[in-house]
């Protein structure tokens, strides 16, 4: 069998496997739950709830309801005492029977605090599985050359050990250090441009420079451009705009910039590159033209064989799509798959869909999934046929249900039970079921639950904020001078009464103050939440404040997170923050303030 036929067979086999588990998802989910509970029977966390009940004796049709009745829903606060004991060296079976030797750090961009999450060999295996599955579906629409290269903007943070000897790092760091990362490249026949020394150097600026340099060096071999998040790709090309001349110099001379000061990185990159004056001149000529065109279509111009740009582009990444499309030109943007530090969830089966329309089919073998129905607060809504469980600030909740009972068009919060020791763990993600692939639901990611702007009776989600900012940002193009929104965040300021919303903008370019006044007024008027509108009219919420921060402010926020142990590959700008350190950066860097006159 040729290597090409072997690759085709691997793709056919994995798609065939997914078709089987998707078509029998209800049974697969029950078996997944049974496997998890049998594997981890007797661990301290479960024993508290299940006791000595023998899982193997529970009827399969009663397993899900029995489990849900015995084990309560959990948040990270319930898991944290156990992960702390693991970090401190407690080797008794606390969450899993399999010893936990690694802990992942969550990004911390939701509430400003990183959390420990168990990471095991199963975590790497499911990552390999979803990458192979996603690659098989992409290959059907955008076939790539065997042996081609990937321009991957991937970054590891530095791993460290707790006092109990547990290795701590981001989930991506653990994965890039695993055998599965190498296996993925071999089985998908696509190889990253950068060596391990560049990926793992721990300095994102040096890594980015080397990714770009080697990407240019192998420019005609690159089949697609990717990173974990759209933000990382946009930031890499913003950096390129400033350093392209130095990159051309290094390619022409076969040298390496003095900004690369880590010996192992210099040695590994210098061992790959050689002087190439012809390539340098070609790139230089293209960049001169690109600079005049504000870098429009830079990716296909410099990487002419690239088929698409691939990254997570949903949720908090949506605001970067305009800039990413600017850089990508006519190249398709393909949204990567749906997962979290805690578990992978779903795969993008239709890579041709634009990011705004992407859905993710749940992979029923990865974890056991439950779904909490969510209902918006509406005074005239008839809840008679809804099993209500509780009322929170943002939603009214129904009773959790297994995957096989979800309905199309309904919004849910995802609850996961994992092989890595999380039991009925509330993920905090709001999704909407958008039909089914065979018998597994396809999910549309809506927002994070606890990213809320609220002062009084108002409740505005990350999605609400994003729509408001998009509307305000469109006004920027009306100015006589050219300007674009680089990034944004927000804060509910209640230090003085009445409280009010503050939106922080970083802008590239010059803009008239009267245009910014209009942006501020229009955003304030664009919040449609009834509680906000009533509160503004009665003056129990004050005028929206628009703060313009100096250029580079959001880079300082990034560096603050990286300084606290996060990696660029998992960074997401927090869209709503009460973190004192971030607010201090934002307020110190504010250069102009505008107050809305929308409500008089």
Please give a structural write-up.
There is one protein chain. Among the domains are: 145-154 and 188-331, no CATH class; 349-377 and 395-448, no CATH class; 452-595. The protein has 600 residues and is of the alpha+beta class. Helix content is 40%, strand content 22%. It is built from 20 helices and 25 strands. The strands form five sheets. Strands 10, 11, 12, 13, 14, 15, 16, 17, 18 and 19 form a ten-stranded antiparallel beta sheet that branches. A five-stranded parallel beta sheet has the order 6-3-7-8-9. It has a four-stranded mixed beta sheet with strand order 2-1-5-4.
The N- to C-terminal Cα distance equals: 75 Å
Mind summarizing the main beta sheet?
10 strands, antiparallel
Name the shape in a single word. Answer: globular
Q: What is the radius of gyration?
A: 25 Å
The number of helical elements comes to 20
> Helix share of residues?
25-40%
Q: Approximately how much beta-strand content do the residues carry?
A: 15-25%
The poorly predicted ranges are none
**How many strand segments?**
25
Mean pLDDT across every amino acid position: 86
Q: Structural class per helix/strand content?
A: alpha+beta
GO molecular function: acid-amino acid ligase activity
Domain GH3 C-terminal: 464-581
Protein name: Indole-3-acetic acid-amido synthetase GH3.5
Family: Belongs to the IAA-amido conjugating enzyme family.
